Give the backbone structure.
Amino acid sequence: MRNVEKVGDYLVDYKTRLTAILDLIDPEVLKQVIDAMVTTFKNRKTVYVIGNGGSAATASHMQADFSFFVRYFTKFRPKIFALTDNGPIMTAVGNDTSFDDVFVEQMRGRFGEGDTLIAISASGNSPNLVRATEFANSLGGTTIAFVGFQGGKLKETAKIPLYTPNPAKDYGPIEDVHMIINHIIVNYLSKDEEFLAIPA
């Protein structure tokens, strides 16, 4: 039998680590992220979201929230796509070319100036995310990265890196924080006059 006190102690420790990372979110950078997303939506451009593993699930969750949850407070439907959700294309590119290109190949002929790319990564060093961010930059897009640990290459490549340092490489809380950031943004927009004024 597991000791309830040990479980409780671990819960307290986890909450402490999670809160410590939340406290590192820079409100100015978060504002830049929101500004970029609202500008993209107002201009009827598209936000693309990418990630690997748990971060791929966060990308999909962002698409769901911005495509459907927003119905509670606006008739406007933002253009947002998680490039993590097309298994056939991702496996085709990974098998025939390289897993490093699974996002870039989906962006070709689709991503353009005025669009925004959000890359979600704990380490910031995933080659497919870095390559996609560089590709978006080359087309005049806005690039945002949610990164932890040391920030990695994405911290240097993205135009707006939302960086919450965590040298301990504690994946769980970092991935939790990235999901929380999504929820902070979408719930903030439910009260944002500029976003609510965008016509359907």
